[in-house]
Amino acid sequence: MKKQIFKLLVKLNKLVLPSYYKKDPMKLSSFQKAILGFRYWALTNSLE
Predict the structure, then answer these.
(1) Structural domain of residue 9, as residue ranges?
(2) What domain count does the chain have?
(3) Which branch of life, at top level (predicted)?
(4) What is the pLDDT of residues 17-30, one digit of tens each?
(5) Does this model's pTM top 0.90?
């Protein structure tokens, strides 16, 4: 059940949130880093 929720969250993230994979993480603003961290957290929980 938990894994399915996180997989749905990852799909939602792909549609709604911007992607920063080509940008240098050191040059991102704190808000952009928070979005990047949230996307990473959701992805790792969906894979477990």
Answers:
(1) 2-47
(2) 1
(3) Bacteria
(4) 888 878 888 899 99
(5) no
